[in-house]
C-alpha cells in the first residue's frame, strides 16, 4: 500500500497566466522531478516542464510571536519556494463562490474587525490618535465653517418653566 506524502502543496490562483500553467507553493526541499512525479502518480496529469524559483522574504525587526520584544534584532522569515508547471491539457479554475453563508463569513469578518480594534487600543500611540468623538466634532466644525450648518447654543441654555406669578419663598425667615 503506498504511503501518503508528508508535504503540502498549495495551488495558487493565477488569473494572468495561460490556462495550461499552474503555480504551486512547495516545501524548500521539493525538487522539479518530485513535483512532476507527484502530479503524474496522484492525479494522472502529464507535465511538459517545471520552473522553480525561491522568493526571499523582506527583513523584519523582531521575530513574530517572540516572548520578549527585541526591536533592534533583525529577522528574515523563511523563504518561499514556488514552482510553475506547464501541462498538456488546460486547467480551468471553478468560479469563485459568491455565497459565503456556509463558511460564516460575516462572523469571521466581525471577529477580525474586533481583533483589529483591540490591537489598535493596545498600541503605544493609541492615546495620541484622535478618538471617534473628536473626529465627529471636527466634522461638525467643518460643516459650520463651510456654512452647511448653523451654530446654535439652544441646547446649552437652561430651560425654565413659567408657572405664572412670582412668589416670595423666604418671607418668614428670621436671621
Helix and strand layout, with pairings?
Layout: E1 10-12, E2 21-26, H1 32-43, E3 47-55, E4 60-61, E5 74-75, E6 80-87, H2 105-122, H3 132-146
Antiparallel strand pairs: 1-2, 2-6, 3-6, 4-5
Protein name: Large ribosomal subunit protein uL23m
GO molecular function, one term: structural constituent of ribosome
Family: Belongs to the universal ribosomal protein uL23 family.
Sum up the structure in keywords.
4-stranded antiparallel sheet; alpha+beta; 3 helices; Ribosomal_uL23-like; structural constituent of ribosome; about 180 residues; Alpha-Beta Plaits; Ribosomal_uL23/eL15/eS24_sf; ribonucleoprotein; elongated; Large ribosomal subunit protein uL23m
Q: Structural class of the secondary structure composition?
A: alpha+beta
Give the SSE order as H and E letters.
Answer: EEHEEEEHH
The CATH H-level superfamily of the domain at 10-87 is RRM (RNA recognition motif) domain
Q: What is the beta-strand fraction?
A: 15-25%
CATH topology category name of the domain at 10-87: Alpha-Beta Plaits
Overall mean pLDDT stands at 85
The biggest sheet, with number of strands, parallel, antiparallel or mixed sense and barrel status, is: 4 strands, antiparallel
Write down the Rg.
Answer: 33 Å
What's the oligomerization state?
single chain
Short structural summary:
The chain is of the alpha+beta class. It has a domain at 10-87: 2-Layer Sandwich (Alpha-Beta Plaits).
Protein described:
The protein is an alpha+beta fold and 175 residues long. It has three helices and six strands; from the N terminus they run ββαββββαα. It has a domain of 78 residues: RRM (RNA recognition motif) domain (Alpha-Beta Plaits, 2-Layer Sandwich), CATH 3.30.70.330. It has a four-stranded antiparallel β-sheet with strand order 1-2-6-3, covered by helices on one side. The chain has a two-stranded antiparallel ribbon with strand order 4-5. A hairpin with an 8-residue loop joins β1 and β2. The chain is elongated, with a radius of gyration of 33 Å. It starts with 9 loop residues before the first strand and ends in a 29-residue tail after the last helix.
Amino acid at each position: 500500500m503506498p504511503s501518503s506524502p508528508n508535504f503540502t502543496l498549495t495551488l495558487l490562483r493565477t488569473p494572468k497566466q495561460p490556462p495550461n500553467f499552474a503555480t504551486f507553493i512547495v516545501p524548500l526541499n521539493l525538487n522539479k522531478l518530485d513535483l512532476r512525479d507527484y502530479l503524474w502518480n496522484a492525479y494522472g496529469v502529464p507535465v511538459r516542464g517545471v520552473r522553480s524559483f525561491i522568493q526571499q522574504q523582506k527583513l523584519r525587526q523582531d521575530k513574530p510571536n517572540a516572548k520578549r520584544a527585541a526591536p533592534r534584532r533583525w529577522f528574515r522569515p523563511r523563504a518561499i519556494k514556488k514552482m510553475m508547471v506547464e501541462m498538456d491539457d488546460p486547467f480551468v479554475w471553478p468560479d469563485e463562490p459568491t455565497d459565503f453563508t456556509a463558511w460564516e463569513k460575516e462572523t469571521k469578518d466581525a471577529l477580525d474587525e474586533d481583533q483589529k480594534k483591540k490591537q489598535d487600543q493596545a498600541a503605544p500611540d493609541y492615546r495620541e490618535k484622535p478618538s471617534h468623538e473628536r473626529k465627529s466634532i471636527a466634522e461638525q466644525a467643518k460643516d459650520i465653517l463651510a456654512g452647511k450648518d448653523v451654530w446654535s447654543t439652544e441646547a446649552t441654555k437652561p430651560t425654565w418653566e413659567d408657572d405664572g406669578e412670582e412668589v416670595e419663598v423666604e418671607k418668614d425667615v428670621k436671621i
